Write a sequence for this structure.
């Protein structure tokens, strides 16, 4: 009995001193395994008899239960401490400043095109596409510009094969393509943004590759005032509610009458400045009423159908809207410029 008491004290003492799970497990092996002292006491049981055996057995059992409970308790405690320690070590300091993630920015031309697309789509227009390598037939002939016509000279064209194929010098051939595929018997509302090419020497205002946004509406009884109303909507959307618009007479082979469309100068509010060359107005597109020859060439009866068409220069719109004074900026792939546009828009 004496042994049991001192064994119990010894184990509890050592358990109390143990600091790690490893130490506790070692103690457990030392005292509770088959070769340990508890089991030795168990072995003594068989040499005892009667009351003595009963008492010894009872006490030994109590000792075993007590030790096992103490081991279990200590192990649970140490395991919990270990988890707490781990959680503490892995905790994230949310007050630390985060590393800034650099985000990309859409190309400014893409942005202006998307803006124009969304306004026209809200008015029921489709956005269509056309080939950049185009046939002379679509780029010129169907648009009322026959071979040898002086109007061709204005568009210094890149020919790619026998003068029959070319890099389109304008997006207007897409008008012809859409009319021809529409069968001549239904109304059309479409815009076509896309790349165009001309044999121009690159400088601040010219680029051998640039983007146009072509538009075409074909229906019955379409007039110049419909074009004016449509142009007004887009101008106000892009340049603000106080933007005014006007038409000036012009000449294009594929429209009659033809106009240049102007917006009031947003920089000087019409007073006159260097941006508007002291006129108070800035030209943003060519436009007009679709020429009867073009309608006829493309399968629409001009006695029944009428339409208007327009062509914006996308770079010009972006240059005006974002105050960019060199068209080459768009094609220099300098990321700092793109970021700059992005910032300018946020301001
Ligand atoms: N295609 C013309 C150009 O490149 C722009 C243009 C003018 C398009 C009048 C049109 C239009 O559709 O009606 O200069």
């Amino acid at each position: 009995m004496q042994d049991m008491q001192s064994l119990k004290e010894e184990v509890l003492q050592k358990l109390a001193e143990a600091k790690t799970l490893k130490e506790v497990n070692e103690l457990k092996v030392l005292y509770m395994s088959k070769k340990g002292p508890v089991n030795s006491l168990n072995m003594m049981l068989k040499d005892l008899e009667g009351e003595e055996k009963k008492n010894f057995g009872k006490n030994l059992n109590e000792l075993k239960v007590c030790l096992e409970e103490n081991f279990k308790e200590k192990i649970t405690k140490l395991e919990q401490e270990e988890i707490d320690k781990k959680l503490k070590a892995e905790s994230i300091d949310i007050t630390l400043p985060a590393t800034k993630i650099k985000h990309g920015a859409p190309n400014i031309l893409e942005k202006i095109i998307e803006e124009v697309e969304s306004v026209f789509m809200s008015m029921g227009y489709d956005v269509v596409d056309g080939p950049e390598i185009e046939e002379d037939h679509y780029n010129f002939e169907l648009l009322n510009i026959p071979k040898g016509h002086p109007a061709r000279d204005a568009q210094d064209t890149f020919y790619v094969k026998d003068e029959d194929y070319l890099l389109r010098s304008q997006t207007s051939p897409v008008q012809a393509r859409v009319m021809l595929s529409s069968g001549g018997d239904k109304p059309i509302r479409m815009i076509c943004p896309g790349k165009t090419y001309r044999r121009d020497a690159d400088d601040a205002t010219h680029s051998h590759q640039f983007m146009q946004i072509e538009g075409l509406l074909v229906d019955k009884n379409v007039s110049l005032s419909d074009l004016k109303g449509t142009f007004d909507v887009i101008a106000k959307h892009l340049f603000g509610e106080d933007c005014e618009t006007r038409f000036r007479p012009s000449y294009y082979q594929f429209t009659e009458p033809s106009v240049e469309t102007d917006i009031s100068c947003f920089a000087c509010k019409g007073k006159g400045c260097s941006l508007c060359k002291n006129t108070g107005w800035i030209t943003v597109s060519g436009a007009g009423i679709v020429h009867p020859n073009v309608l006829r060439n493309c399968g629409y009866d001009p006695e029944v159908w009428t339409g208007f068409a327009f062509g914006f220069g996308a770079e010009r719109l972006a240059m005006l809207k974002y105050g960019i004074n060199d068209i080459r900026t768009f094609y220099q792939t300098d990321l700092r410029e793109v970021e700059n546009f992005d910032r300018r828009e946020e301001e």
Summary: Strands lie at 126-127, 133-135, 158-161, 165-167, 188-197, 209-219, 245-252, 255-264, 281-290, 306-313. The two ends are 89 Å apart (CA to CA). The chain has eleven helices and ten strands.
